[in-house]
Amino acid sequence: MALVHDFGESIIGDITPYDGVSKEDKNFRESLAFDYLAGLAGPNLGRKMKSLWQEFEEGTTREARLVRGLDRLECVA
Predict the structure, then answer these.
(1) pLDDT of residue 77
(2) What DSSP line would sit under 1-58, residue for residue?
(3) Residue ranges, the chain, pLDDT below 50
(4) How far separated are the first and last CA of the chain, in Å rounded?
(5) Residues 6, 49: contact at Cβ < 8 Å?
(6) Residue among 42, 45, 57 nearest 8 (CA)
(7) CA within 20 to 30 Å of 25's CA: 14, 31, 34, 76, which one?
(8) 64: how many CB neighbours lie within 10 A of its CB?
(9) How far is CA 40 from the centre of its chain?
(10) What is the distance, to the nearest Å, from the Cα of residue 72 to the centroid of all Cα atoms in its chain?
(11) What's the DSSP call for residue 61?
(12) pLDDT value at position 59?
């Protein structure tokens, strides 16, 4: 999860709250980019990558909350 959660940003860039992009639009853009990259990885690995990314985005598991917290630390450092 820590490795794949920013893959979409490799295509669309890092969209911050200061960019004036709605959360819905940001998620839509990241999802399209992630689908493209997951498709390049092949069906099995692509599904696993997408599942991990969705888990991160939902932030409901302990692992997702940990990775989200670490991701936010990057902004502070």
Answers:
(1) 57
(2) -TTTTTTTHHHH----GGG---HHHHHHHHHHHHHHHHHHH-HHHHHHHHHHHHHHHH
(3) none
(4) 21
(5) no
(6) 57
(7) 76
(8) 18
(9) 16
(10) 13
(11) S
(12) 95
Q: Please report where in the chains the tokens 């932030």 appear, as a residue.
A: 59
70 burial (CB, 10 Å; 0-12 / 13-18 / 19+) is exposed
pLDDT recorded at residue 16: 84
- Taking alpha carbons only, the member of 67, 68, 33, 65 closest to residue 50 is 33
Q: What pTM did the predictor assign?
A: 0.84
Spatial separation of the C-alpha atoms in residues 27 and 30, rounded to whole Å: 5
Burial of 58 (0-12, 13-18, 19+ CB in 10 A): exposed
